[in-house]
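Justification of computing resources. Each target in the renewal requires a structure prediction run like the one illustrated here; the chain below, 200 residues long, is used simply to show the kind of job we budget for.
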Amino acid sequence: IAIKVLPAAMAHDPDRLARFQREARALAALNHPHIVTVYSVEEADGVNFLAIELVEGQPLDRLICRGGLPVEQIVEIASALADALAAAHDKGIVHRDLKPANVMITHDGRVKVLDFGLAKDVNEGGPNDTTVTSLGNTQAGVVMGTPAYMSPEQISARPLDHRTDIFSLGVVLYEMATGQQPFKGNSSAELLSAILRDHP
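Resulting structure tokens:
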């Protein structure tokens, strides 16, 4: 198993604790061969942690090389990712941070989607429950996700559904096929503007 611990400093931050608990609930609701398995959600002596499946391998971002991946490998990985997202969406769970760094490829070629820390149960959201983009630490009132993979709706802090993950999957597919990201910018502001305005 792997242990995912919420650092003590963050456990006292209600927003961080809520994110951690949201990930635990989202993962616990999912039982799928391409999604990391949560065995238990625990708290001991004020330490909050998850006992999760240990996935040994390499993150997809380390496997994507200049020029992209072979077509057969792209199809195999894309199929597994689409299957995992469909299972999550069937449960009302939107990942909101799908990117190559959150996809593990095991030594025997299995695909696992990791890190549901920004996951959202669209069945629980209220009118003011918007995704809030952070380049570093999570902050209240800031749109969250990894800018290069975010949908226009996520960047604009508009209400989200499963289609935001489909956009992110498209960005991942483009990167697997070409070895580069579809949208570019010299700063995060330029990158976000390119996503809203440009065609790859």
